[in-house]
User: What shape does this take?
Amino acid sequence: MIIKPELEKQIPFTLDETNFPKLGERYKGKVRDVYANGNQLILIATDRVSAFDRILTTIPFKGQVLNQMAAFWFEKLKKIIPNHVIAIPDPNVIVARKVEIIPIEIVIRGHLTGSAWRDYDAGKSISGLHITPGMRKDQKFEEPLLTPSTKAKHGHDLPISTEQIIEQGIISRSLMETIEKTAKALYKKGNEICAKHNLILVDTKYEFGLLDGALVLADEVHTPDSSRFWYKDTYQELFEAGKDQRMIDKEYFRQWLIREKGFMGDGPIPEIPDEIRVEFARRYIEVFEQITGETFSGTPGPVLERIKENMKSKGYL
Assistant: This one.
């Protein structure tokens, strides 16, 4: 585990953005800079962090954690569905096949928490689903729920039901059924692997695409940006006591914003102290090491220069 002083040293070197015209046309996402080059995409995970669909700050080593975690899971899950990965030339970079992205995010929820709990507590449906009355925060569902959302280029992603996806002609019923079956299989396998490392994969988000007509897994998978993780051995005790689960994912940051700053996406971006950025990084590294069994290797210094050298040495620049 990288210690706090090393994380503090990395703050001046966090990667906010990249600019490599030779890699192709750039699209700047919330976290990744994506370069299109023929039939390939080069995805560079920056240290940007978004919450409530706003880019807020940068976090030491965040891009490296996300990229290496995604690489770990793409390899573990490839027997369930092929993925878009071609190569990983740098800890922050994935070279991928260009796929036709399906314009919905597939969220699988195993527990009533996060935004689903906030909607439920306010008496709202969750992606068109009406949940049994009387459930408690963080309670486990009898069966995982599929709660899709739209993929907004700007602003907030919006919940959408499976039937609305089909009725609006976004994708066909048969493709939606295949996606649902695949997503649930990925979630089940993810939870099986997490359980071996004393974790629960609470909920997660998948993005799928089509490559030559076949369904593939794209973007990222089971990272602490796209997923929620709790410790398995303390879950029941904390749930019964009505206490928050230990947050080792982006929910730590969201809750800090809500509780300390009253921020849920609207209005000016609040000031985020370095101590919060460092603790955020420490938790991401904690979950990376817990799941992979590897010691995270991050050396304080300029990330951009390292990426540039690695991309040159491997013929991309």
Q: What stands out?
A: The chain has nine helices and 14 strands. Residues 101-241 form a domain with the D-amino Acid Aminotransferase; Chain A, domain 1 fold (CATH 3.30.470.20). The radius of gyration is 19 Å.
